[in-house]
Amino acid sequence: MNKYGIWVVQSITYSLKVRNFASIACLGSLASDCRVKNIESERRWEEGQSLDGQKWKTLEHKGPLFPPEYEPLPKTVSFSYGGKPVSLSVAAEEVATFYAKMLDHEYTSKEVFQRNFFTDWRKEMTEEERDLIQTLSKCDFGEIHGYFLAKAEEKKALTKEEKQVLKEEASKQVEEYGYCYLDGHRERIGNFRVEPPGLFRGRGEHPKMGKLKKRVLPEDITINCSKDSNIPVPPRGHHWKKVQHDNAVTWLASWVENVQGSIKYIMLNPSSKLKGERDWQKFEIARKLKSKVDMIRRQYCADWKSREMKKRQRGVAVYFIDKLALRAGNEKEEGETADTVGCCSLRVEHITLHEKLDGQECVVEFDFLGKDSIRYYNKVPVEKRVFKNLKLFMENKIPEDDLFDRINTAYLNKTLNESMTGLTAKVFRTFNASTTLQEQLNKLTDADMSVQEKILSYNRANRAVAILCNHQRAAPKTFEKSMQLLQEKIALKQEQLDEAKKELKEARNQHKECSTDKSRKLVDKQEKRVKKLEEQLKKLQLQMTDREENKVIALGTSKLNYLDPRISVAWCKKFGVPIEKIYNKTQRDKFAWAIDMTEEDYQF
DNA sequence: AGCTAAACTTAGGAGCGCAAAT
DNA sequence: ATTTGCGCTCCTAAGTTTAGCT
User: Fold this and answer.
1) Closest residue by Cα to residue A353 from A379, A373, A374
2) How far is the CA of A426 from the C1' of C12 (A)?
3) Could you tell me the CATH superfamily of domain A54-269?
4) CATH topology (fold) of A275-423
């Protein structure tokens, strides 16, 4: 029975919820592990958004939702300069409140943050204010800070009923602005709110931290929707920057953000058909790599010996991307962003070569800041030829020089695409992540495990991927404390176990000396007790290991972006684990396409 | 071919609300 | 009843890739 048939049966119950995935399900059965092949459809899909690049036929929405207007502070709350209260203009006051609200944050103490803030703040001041307010250290935002703290308390102290009212108002907003109609289907919008003004805080040592992120007006916003639809109405007294009808793109609205000059978009939620199809397509490309990867690996190993330095660098770079799941590493404009790198942008200072290290030969020590200024630290033994090449690439360079000076991401991707249509650097991450999950699940799951043990295995497999992709998080603030608590629990359990063991021994001795029915029962009972305690202890210790190993590892990112959901769905089906144990509601919505189309024998 | 702008995916953290613990 | 812990949602920054231009 092919999957299309199954889909039709299921679609009777699914039609409301997943109606928009019918087309994906069909394509899925054709392109992947189906038995019936439809070459034409497959080709059409491979071309992806091609086929004239149309993303939709009709698109209707209400436009973005704007943040509330600024509410001036009560007269009783004042800002002070040099110890004297100063009444600020509305514009200057608003920016002052942004800073005042952040006073508890560590970064308001950073010099770059302060300088950027103060510079931008002064631009919002009136002439007189600018004359007066010349030094940040003379500014006292304390009262304003206190005012917002009190306000937060007030909000917390609202009655249940009042909170309920607020909640209902919020969901009304979602109802009204949170959805659009794409090709006639009601779809959830991802971010339907315009970003409110505030102070920019980049990640890591960002040179622009503290700069003023300005309020976005309707006049800044471009609306994208279909010609014949109800055009969104701008707020009273305002107009849109532009209304366009471009169905080659997926966004509903956009504006230029002032800090970095980049464009911000309003787009669909991951649960939408549009996003789901692309997600599905992403994993199909990664699966295609499976059949090509041996050839590609042979190719890049061969490149290590090339006479052309450019090819050698390419060979080593792709090797890193494949083996270590590094990101491509685009060039960045210096001084505009935090200093972070990926593969192609690695500098000599980011690696150290060790002929021998900890009993291993040809070890490369990586130490650099990657995306979001997350540190990548790894010691990796590599092939002799790679090692030699790295030495060569580093010759006559200073630490700040590029390691791969002859190549960039565009070149890399261009040659990858020649090996396989659709192949780019990031496909390796998807491919290796999903392959790892599949392997680990096969290895770690046993049919006769309890559901809980299976989930633990799943998390372990997930963690292997997160480690591969270097997905980190800050250790939870309460980590040490909760660990200690668990430790105490374990100690207690151990004590109980020791006690029980002693009692068992006694019971056995008694039984040996004088066997009665009663003494036998006692032995049995004690044996059971010991066994139970041992199990409980093991479970606690497992939990401890699990938590320890998860201390700085974030599982969510890989789960959401790198792991083919069909692997997880099939695993759940095969081992009788309810899907809810693996995916929460949001995740199930996002992966509806996979949940619907996957059978238990699916292999990535 | 190389550059920049635009489009889209991936990322960690803040904050909130709910449930478990005390 | 209150506090604490934790998962979920939202937020938006920071990447990659593609498109478009010269």
Assistant:
1) A379
2) 22
3) DNA Topoisomerase I, domain 2 (2.170.11.10)
4) Topoisomerase I; Chain A, domain 3 (3.90.15)
Whole-number distance in Å between A55 CA and C19 C1': 15
Q: What does DSSP say about strands A253-256 and A263-266: parallel, antiparallel, or unpaired?
A: antiparallel
Nucleotides of C under 7 A from a protein CB: 4-20
User: Nucleotides of chain B within 7 Å of a protein C-beta?
Assistant: 2-4, 6-14, 17, 22
**What is the three-class DSSP state of A502?**
helix
Domain boundary assignment for chain A: 3-46, 54-269, 275-423, 434-597
Tell me whether domains A54-269 and A275-423 share a fold. no
Determine the distance between A578 (CA) and B5 (C1') in angstroms.
46
Topology at the third CATH level for domain A434-597: Topoisomerase I; Chain A, domain 4 (1.10.132)
Q: For residue A20, what pLDDT is reported?
A: 41
Asked if the model's pLDDT at residue A41 lies above 80, the reply is: no
Q: Is the pLDDT of residue A33 over 50?
A: no
* Strand ranges (E), A421-461: none
Nucleotide nearest to A190 (CA to C1'): C10
Q: Judge contact between A326 and A312, C-beta under 8 A.
A: no
**A201: Cβ under 7 Å from strand B?**
no
CB of A287 lies under 7 Å from some atom of strand C: no
Please give the structure tokens belonging to residue A119: 């510079």
Q: In what order do the strands lie in the sheet with A351-357?
A: A351-357, A360-369, A375-381
> Is A458 among the catalytic positions?
no
Q: Quick one: pLDDT band at residue A51, thresholds 50, 70, 90? A: low
Give residue-wise pLDDT tens across range A63-81. 999 999 999 999 999 999 9
Q: For the residues A148-177, what does the mean pLDDT come to?
A: 85
Quick: pLDDT tens for A201-235.
Answer: 999 999 999 999 999 999 999 999 999 999 999 99
**Nucleic strand C contact set for A 504-563 (CB, < 7 Å):** 556
Answer yes or no: pTM beyond 0.70.
Answer: yes
